[in-house]
Design the sequence.
């Protein structure tokens, strides 16, 4: 089920493109010396053991990038090597870059972190269609950019996770940490409204171009076609690239190892925002006492991370490490697992980008080897080393059916889970595809006239009612839970 043979080939023949080919060693924050050959051997062994398709590693020491190398493949089927300039979906690393943009606009006196956002908007928030669910809850007037960027809005991570798919404020804003992509998307609305510019234009103007991040954009661009990575699921199946067409501050950014390392190094050195403004990102906004980061609204608490003062700043997690104040950000999407971890003094850190859903399994052993004891809250993040994970369940076997064109064409249409989650079903060349919003479409194979399964993942779905008429409901089978989407015009 896994592409073990291809991964072994990747590790042996594509040990990586390194921007610091002459770098034979570097110094860890604890003073130990690590050789390039040790990193190569360790990364290759970890990738092979964890079945990680490709990984990019950047290491920082005294505010300099001392190691930058890509390993494995960006396209396992074509045996194309991952490079430091291969464009990858950054997932939630987007949020951290967006937070830097907001702080720059604050520094330029365009925005105020503590001004209620309703005062920035031309109409009440519930009058926006995507926020109509908040009608009757006046707590939206308490929301500020500081609250949204520190993940204390009271929103769920995504409204799609709610039983009724509606957006709600679950607690008094500003009183508790609960990670929320919804909060970041709302902050994007405020920023675009105030500036009169799109997020794509702002990020390019204020961040990407000033730092020379030529392989980064908030949307997919044709110039990325020469070197991009496919994402791979836990079973080693290609999910392809994510060619987003709409900029989303919570997760649409496309970037490369070299570019995001440049961004991190600029933050470490205070070169992008200046020392004072950079400090705003990493000032403690809220203490974190949750047992785990996800599920974000879980009320289980723990004192396990009190000793390291685990907290959240603005767009970044922070804690007290053996090397002083640390900041971090994760990226997690299907086929993509990333982590940035840096120490403000002495200006050291690591960036790990992977194009594999198995990527988190190498984080702890790799960071321990490259940085030494960091005190990072791996358990809070649910980052379990790959060799401590249970075996993957066997994939359910499917038998593909053959359907007539009219049996497929009757399924074509749009099905809505909520105002902001719409699946489009299309047929092309006798094959059925399903696309969520502007994300890449997936091919689904028929098991019957109503039941389908993904060609590249474990996803399954059904259309009902059965028969020759137009189905009115698309049912997603998500483990032991069924989610129904209604046909819309």
Sequence:
């Amino acid at each position: 089920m896994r592409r073990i043979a291809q991964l072994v080939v990747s590790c042996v023949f594509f040990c990586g493109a390194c921007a610091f080919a002459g770098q034979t060693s570097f110094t860890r924050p604890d003073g130990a010396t690590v050789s390039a050959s040790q990193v190569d051997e360790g990364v290759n062994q970890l990738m092979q053991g964890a079945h990680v398709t490709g990984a990019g590693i950047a290491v920082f020491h005294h505010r300099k990038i001392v190691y930058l190398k890509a390993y494995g493949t960006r396209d396992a089927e074509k045996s194309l090597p991952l490079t430091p300039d291969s464009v990858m979906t950054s997932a939630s690393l987007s949020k951290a870059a967006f937070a830097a943009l907001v702080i720059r606009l604050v520094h330029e006196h365009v925005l105020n972190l503590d001004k209620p956002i309703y005062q920035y908007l031309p109409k009440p928030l519930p009058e926006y269609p995507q926020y109509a669910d908040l009608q009757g809850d006046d707590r939206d007037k308490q929301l500020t950019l500081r609250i949204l960027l520190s993940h204390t809005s009271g929103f769920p991570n995504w409204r799609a996770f709610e039983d009724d798919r509606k957006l709600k404020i679950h607690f008094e804003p500003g009183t508790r940490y609960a990670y929320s992509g919804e909060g970041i998307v709302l902050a994007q609305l405020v920023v675009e409204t105030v500036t009169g510019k799109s997020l794509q234009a702002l990020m390019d103007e204020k961040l990407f171009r000033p730092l020379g991040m030529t392989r980064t954009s908030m949307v997919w661009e044709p110039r990325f076609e020469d070197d991009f990575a496919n994402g791979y699921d836990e079973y080693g199946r290609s999910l392809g690239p994510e060619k987003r067409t709409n900029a989303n501050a919570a997760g649409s950014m496309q970037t490369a190892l070299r570019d995001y390392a440049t961004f991190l190094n600029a933050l470490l050195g205070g070169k992008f925002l200046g020392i004072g403004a950079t400090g705003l990102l990493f000032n403690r906004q809220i203490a974190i006492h949750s047992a785990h980061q996800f599920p974000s609204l879980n009320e289980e608490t723990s004192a396990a991370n009190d000793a390291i003062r685990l907290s959240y700043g603005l767009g970044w997690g922070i804690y007290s490490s053996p090397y002083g104040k640390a900041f971090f950000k994760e990226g997690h999407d299907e086929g993509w697992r990333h982590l940035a971890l840096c120490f403000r003094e002495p200006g050291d850190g690591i960036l790990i980008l992977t194009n594999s859903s198995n990527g988190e399994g190498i984080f702890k052993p790799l960071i321990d080897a490259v940085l030494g004891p960091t005190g990072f809250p791996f358990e809070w993040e649910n980052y379990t080393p790959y060799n401590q994970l249970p075996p993957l369940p066997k994939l359910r076997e499917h038998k593909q059916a053959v359907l007539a064109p009219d049996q497929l064409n009757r399924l074509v249409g749009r099905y809505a889970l909520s105002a902001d989650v719409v699946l489009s079903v299309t047929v092309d060349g006798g094959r059925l595809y399903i696309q969520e919003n502007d994300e890449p479409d997936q091919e689904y194979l028929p098991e019957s006239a109503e039941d389908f399964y993904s060609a590249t993942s474990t996803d399954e779905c059904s259309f009902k009612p059965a028969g020759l008429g137009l189905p009115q409901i698309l049912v997603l089978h998500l483990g032991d839970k069924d989610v129904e989407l209604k046909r819309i015009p």
